[in-house]
Design a protein that fits this description.
Helix 3 packs across helix 4 and helix 10 packs parallel to helix 13. The strands form five sheets. The chain has a twelve-stranded mixed beta sheet with strand order 2-1-12-11-10-3-9-8-4-7-5-6. The protein contains 13 helices and 24 strands. The chain folds into three domains: about 240 residues, Rossmann fold; about 170 residues, no CATH class; about 55 residues, Orthogonal Bundle (Arc Repressor Mutant, subunit A). It is of the alpha/beta class. About 10% of the residues have low confidence. The protein starts with a strand and ends in a 13-residue tail after the last strand.
């Protein structure tokens, strides 16, 4: 797969996406030579190809990528998606790697070395486990891996060992002579533009075959770069292409001004004309507040009211989604390419259940608490709509169980409990405990073993911990539109959800439940090794991990 980021004369030039994302690349050019522009062009093409990256932004100039692409912006600005001081960086970066998301890590207003160190440590740890291709872009690399003083050791480690883990590295700098030489020497791909300082020319000389070629760097125009290494088949001088988003790093230009005309004094009227009052507008509704008519009448199964059905608006057109699926179908093995066949492709309005729950909680004094969350309506997993549709562990492993069985699973710990301890923890009668344990064993939700003391204990066999109601707080911020087109009916019923919630917390009650729909493209793929399904987010264009058809 190639990224068409520039031109050689009238001919488009493509660079290897695989080499860029998993290799070691340096982008070098002095101030004003187009380095930041070129990196933004690379990022735009990575976004359009749904290839994940994280860019350490030292000047806050790359957030404009959000104007066109679903970028996650972590920084200090009030408009950021996550505050850099409070973000759960491990969770965000894990999701980004698994879902090939794009991150702008804006360190322009904080201690950039401290924050960048935390980021690269987490990235290296995650990729050591996940080993999924992902690109780290380090702008102004001389601030993080300087030659003259201590550098961030993990960036050096990534330059040496990251490739085996799928973690690519792109370092960018205006002053290559100030960057740690051990890192630059690891860069087997180079994109080098105009340089005029002797020390910087000497620092990149080993990338060229002769002194004459190095001296040609002095004559380059802004935007012209030599591309070398595994990115292209041979060394090429190219001009970076245009940008789709606004470049926030452009130097402000002088514009000629005019002397301000002296205003004539205004004569005072003896009777001032009455100033019309502005039209009154209705007070804005509070966020998350909905009209009573939008509620779905409780029932079992959950009833649909077509005239009230609402949906997240679709942003991705069918032909674009189909191209994404085609890209995900390409496979290679020992230099032979295979194309899996798309046998079915359709847009689906995926049902989601929005719930509000009240319950009593408190150690000394009980008080009413509230929880709100969204469930995927086919399997009961949680749905997160903060950045497209993301599937989180929820209640799928509890569907079909009665209240007593759920209560026992909620009480069990990895250390296990005896029958008497289960009775004490759940306040269930012995006959209820015995019946529920038999059901859970039959469905392979628990197992029995002997403790070190010789007592028989029961241990849960769940893939994920059961969510606590106190941790479930989510409000839909997207503007909903009327639903159009065909839909699929949910499988999870309100009765099943009530049993689960009662098992987790016996005082819980569902106070509101309604259904909304999310746009998803479903594709069935056939190949020699069998078949599979792909689900593409109709808003972000990313593959939805963890979603499965009923």
């Amino acid at each position: 797969m190639d990224l068409g980021v520039g031109k050689v004369g009238d001919r488009d030039l493509g660079i290897s996406a695989q080499e860029l994302v998993t290799g070691r690349t340096c982008v070098i050019a002095q101030s004003g030579a187009g380095k930041s522009w070129g990196i933004a062009v690379l990022c735009e093409h990575l976004c359009k190809s749904y290839i994940g990256f994280c860019l350490i932004d030292t000047e806050g100039e790359y957030f404009s990528l959000k104007d066109r692409f679903p970028i996650i912006w972590i920084g200090s600005d009030e408009d950021c998606d996550f505050d850099i001081e409070t973000v759960d960086l491990y969770t965000v970066m894990r999701d980004a790697i698994l879902s090939s998301r794009h991150i702008i890590f804006d360190v322009s207003e904080v201690d950039m070395r401290v924050k960048a160190t935390a980021l690269v440590n987490i990235l290296y740890e995650l990729e050591s486990e996940l080993r999924k291709p992902y690109l780290l872009i380090v702008e102004e690399a001389d601030k993080f891996i300087p030659q003259s003083r201590d550098s961030i050791k993990m960036i050096e480690e990534i330059s040496r060992r990251g490739r085996k883990r799928g973690l690519g590295l792109l370092v960018a700098t205006q002053r290559p002579s100030l960057v740690q030489k051990n890192v630059l020497s690891q860069c087997n791909n180079q994109i080098i533009g105009k340089l005029t300082i002797d020390n910087d020319l000497k620092a990149v000389a080993h990338f060229f075959d002769s002194r004459r070629e190095v001296e040609e760097l002095i004559t380059l125009n802004p935007g012209e770069f030599y591309v070398m290494g595994g990115l292209v088949s041979e060394k090429t001088l190219m001009m970076f292409g245009g940008r789709e988003t606004k470049h926030r790093g452009v130097t402000p230009q002088i514009t000629p001004g005019r002397p301000k005309e002296i205003e004539k004094p205004i004569s005072i009227q003896t009777e001032a004309a009455p100033i019309p009052e502005p039209p009154k507008s209705p007070p804005p509704e509070e966020e998350g507040e909905e009209e009573e008519s939008s509620r779905v009448i409780p029932g079992s199964p959950i009833e649909e009211q077509p005239e009230l059905n609402t949906a997240i608006p679709i942003l991705l057109q069918r032909d674009e989604a189909l191209r994404i699926v085609q890209g995900l179908c390409k496979r290679s093995f020992w230099r032979r390419r295979y194309l899996e066949r798309i046998t079915h492709f359709e847009r689906v309005s995926w049902p989601l259940l929005v719930l509000e729950v009240k319950y009593l909680a408190g150690m000394l004094k009980k008080s009413t608490r509230k929880s709100s969350f969204i469930l995927e309506a086919f399997h009961g997993d949680r749905a997160d709509l903060s950045d497209g549709l993301m599937i989180r562990p929820g209640f799928s492993e509890l569907i079909g169980l009665d209240e007593a069985a759920v209560a026992i699973l909620s009480a069990l710990s990895p250390a296990g409990l005896t029958v008497l301890e289960i009775e004490a923890e759940t306040s269930l009668r012995p006959t209820e405990v015995k019946k529920a344990i038999k059901l859970l064993q039959k469905q392979h939700r628990i197992t029995m073993m002997k403790s070190e003391e010789g007592a028989v204990v029961y241990i849960p066999l769940l893939d994920h911990p059961i969510p606590k109601l106190s941790n479930l707080h989510y409000t839909i911020k997207q503007k909903l539109h009327p639903l159009s087109g065909e839909t699929r009916n949910p499988i999870v019923t309100e009765d099943e959800l009530r049993k689960i919630l009662k098992g987790i917390e016996r005082t819980s009650e569902i106070t509101k439940i309604r259904m909304i729909y999310y746009p998803v493209y479903e594709a069935r793929i056939a190949s020699e090794s069998g078949g599979r399904q792909l689900f593409i987010d109709g808003v972000t264009g990313r593959e939805i991990i963890g979603l499965s058809a009923p």
